[in-house]
TrEMBL record:
<dbReference type="GO" id="GO:0070095">
    <property type="term" value="F:fructose-6-phosphate binding"/>
</dbReference>
<keyword id="KW-0021">Allosteric enzyme</keyword>
<dbReference type="GO" id="GO:0003872">
    <property type="term" value="F:6-phosphofructokinase activity"/>
</dbReference>
<protein>
    <recommendedName>
        <fullName>6-phosphofructokinase</fullName>
        <ecNumber>2.7.1.11</ecNumber>
    </recommendedName>
</protein>
<dbReference type="GO" id="GO:0042802">
    <property type="term" value="F:identical protein binding"/>
</dbReference>
<dbReference type="GO" id="GO:0005945">
    <property type="term" value="C:6-phosphofructokinase complex"/>
</dbReference>
<comment type="pathway">
    <text>Carbohydrate degradation; glycolysis; D-glyceraldehyde 3-phosphate and glycerone phosphate from D-glucose: step 3/4.</text>
</comment>
<comment type="similarity">
    <text>Belongs to the phosphofructokinase type A (PFKA) family. ATP-dependent PFK group I subfamily. Eukaryotic two domain clade "E" sub-subfamily.</text>
</comment>
<dbReference type="GO" id="GO:0006002">
    <property type="term" value="P:fructose 6-phosphate metabolic process"/>
</dbReference>
<dbReference type="InterPro" id="IPR000023">
    <property type="entry name" value="Phosphofructokinase_dom"/>
</dbReference>
<dbReference type="GO" id="GO:0048029">
    <property type="term" value="F:monosaccharide binding"/>
</dbReference>
<dbReference type="GO" id="GO:0061621">
    <property type="term" value="P:canonical glycolysis"/>
</dbReference>
<keyword id="KW-0067">ATP-binding</keyword>
<feature type="compositionally biased region" description="Basic and acidic residues">
    <location>
        <begin position="796"/>
        <end position="810"/>
    </location>
</feature>
<feature type="domain" description="Phosphofructokinase">
    <location>
        <begin position="433"/>
        <end position="718"/>
    </location>
</feature>
<dbReference type="GO" id="GO:0016208">
    <property type="term" value="F:AMP binding"/>
</dbReference>
<keyword id="KW-0460">Magnesium</keyword>
Amino acid sequence: MLRKIKMAASMEVASSPPLRTLSQPVETKDLMKKKDTEDRCLAVLTSGGDSQGMNAAVRAVVRIALFKGMKPYLVNEGYKGLVEGGELIKECQWTDVTHTMHKGGTIIGTARCKEFRERSGRLDAAANLVKARINNLVIIGGDGSLTGANIFKEEWKGLLEELVRKERITQEEAALLPYLNIVGLVGSIDNDMCGTDMTIGTDSALHRIIEAMDCLVSTASSHQRTFVLEIMGRNCGYLTIMAGIAVGAEWVLIPENPPKEGWEESMCDKLKSSREKGRRLNFILVAEGAIDQENKKITTSDVKKVIDSKLGFDTRVTVLGHVQRGGRPSAYDRILGTRMGAAAVQTLFEAKGEMDAFMIAIRGNEMTKLPLMSCVETTKKIGSALNERDFNRMQELRGSSFARNIKILKKLEACPTTTCKPESSPSSPSYTFAVMNVGAPAGGTNSCTRSFVRFLLYSGHTVLGIYSGFDGLKEGEIKNLDWSEVSEWGSVGGSKLGTTRTVPDDKSLDAIAKSLESHGIQGLLVVGGFEAFQSLIKLEEGRRKYPALCIPIVQVAATISNNVPGTEYSLGCDTALNVIVSACDILKQSATASRKRVFVVETMGGYCGYLATMGALAGGADSAYIFEESFNLDHLRKDVAHMVHKFKAGNFEKGIIMRNESCNNNYTTDFMTQMLAEEGKDYFIARSSVLGHLQQGDAPSPFDRILGTKYAYQSMNHLLECMERSTTSEGKVLATGSDTICVMGLVGVEYKPTPVSVLKDKCDMKYRIPNDQWWIQLRPLVRILARHADKKFHGETDMIDDDTRSKEPHPPQFKGLSMNDVKPFLPPLLVLGAMIAMTFARLNNW
Ligand SMILES: Nc1ncnc2c1ncn2[C@@H]1O[C@H](COP(=O)(O)OP(=O)(O)OP(=O)(O)O)[C@@H](O)[C@H]1O
Ligand SMILES: O=P(O)(O)OC[C@H]1O[C@](O)(CO)[C@@H](O)[C@@H]1O
Ligand SMILES: [Mg+2]
């Protein structure tokens, strides 16, 4: 049992095992490396179904190529552009990809091209590439597009020989391009490619799906209706499962997990009991590739017919269709596309001669490259498994997290006390858990609470909700949470339990311990930010004095600042990033309309520069000022000069400077805006925008909802494991080990509990930032992508390669001494004073 739980806690986020061993990192730190201009040409194209985030990838490919001294080309209309050539293959400039990142779809067009499937089409494509001297290709598409690219690469030498034979190119031309190097990026909403945790567009599609589902909730609930929704994904059920986790669904039908015979009855029982428990609406999610055990398609109308005939519920069908592929890309997809585009160019740039075909993937937070054909072949095996009806194999090939997500969803929606049997047995102990929120509101908090409650009820435990943080705990604002009460919580922002910033102190520990004891709380989940972390440190200290505090306690980091140590992602920061990105889009539009404006955008985050940096990357800002990287007037002056230069050079009508709220006490948002206003007055108008509490967001993003659920699952497992091993023979929980009071974090590809006693030494408690922050490595990318490629501007290189910025935070500003600062010196000062007085007295014979 123990081993099983341990494994679950450290299980990987995604990726199939054989591919994992083939992946090599693409180091962001090497991005800045340049060689002398080599005049190597590189082309980028988008192919297959479009997806949101493709433009971010194209923009990054073009700009990183220019930065590296390569000549970028845009191929329009996918492989059709390669086959037809002419105007469809065009050398491009920096400004050709300006103001494109916020657009959905692909600005260079995509197509499904029959001709490229034939050798004759690929022969024309090769001829066109040779004429343009291009032998580096970035393909952004799905499995089909990447397969085609690989075939093209393999055939390259033969194609060129044939072209020479047919006198379509000369021997000399062929000799200049002896090989074709290709890198593939997966642009597809389906997330169906093996080897990468996420594909470009999936997160945005999830945004569209949950927006639609959130809208349906109100109308469905008003009429007490059942909605049957068709969700895209071809043969992959990823979007469907994730939508179920993010919003809730009584039943999901996906190709990888066809329902057992007689599913119609089980589904109707489930719908009925859910209604009996007070739920006013139901969702049934049907993946477009849904099938039964016999491989027979199950459609939304099949499902509706079953419900109509067996239950007579008022049922409607909604097919979301291509809406899912439309609209603006989410912050996640803009960052993913940007990072993947940059990694693709870096891979091509670093190639010494001919290289294998690679696919760029994301694993945890890292960019990696994998042999392209291994990824395609593994993905194709899923198709074969489907044909052979080997559904377990299908799930296995989708990666370890896929099956776990199905299991999570089933537990989440299994209504206890109905025909679905809860996962408890009379022999297993039943514990009393509590959950509370501490700190400022953050998206995903309620999703975490709801999932925690449901998972535990499913296993036969009791869950108490503590209202209003530690204040509420002291006052006994505690009540039982039941299954139906938390139904709709996942889609709601803020904190349903209510949250306060109160951190326990020596005085309040007594009341807290008494309250925990009187309510019989044996395990505690605290969902919150840095104050929650400080609280856990205090509770651990208090364990020596108060045995009631010796219960397992886990914190799930929930703060838009992303500054809690022990995790790479806190709940709420993705929701906040999406708000920042939307704000940037609006400000850019305003600037474009009113011509020539620069906005200084102030983000939250305390002293942590995560939101400013990632917001700048996703929002296409020119720079991001943060506390962790100190800057001086000279840096500001250069950046202002750079901005002025961009406007002077023309073709430029907007600028965004991102500034973290605490990056510097003196170089304030107003100061920066005024500096820009004065220095740029002949070229632009400067304005500021302080985003403030808007960043806490409205409805949480899909990422935050899903992460909230996963954190709840892992936290429950860890708490249970600690409880089981620290239950005394009298049945009392007495947890004293440091690992029984932890932060549950996402570290690389693992969910990992880390004791707060370890973490407190890994962060700056005064400025509330972890010592190591993974995203710092992405900062050069912000500057490179904002560079204006005008060779006349001599300061330019200086701007980009500017490593004079200190990686140290700003020295703290002198604000006068407080009593706390002086306290430690008081005893030695008193002793010294007494000694001086005695010497003085002796000398004076007093
Ligand atoms: N086996 C192949 N040989 C050559 N070209 C191919 C091959 N498979 C696909 N292509 C090319 O790639 C294009 C896109 O392929 P496909 O329609 O399978 O989409 P995809 O890239 O898999 O994207 P998605 O499935 O996400 O829409 C095809 O129209 C064709 O031009
Ligand atoms: O845009 P089309 O050609 O109708 O293709 C739809 C298919 O493309 C995708 O949107 C992306 O692969 C699938 O989810 C869907 O099955
Ligand atoms: Mg495909």
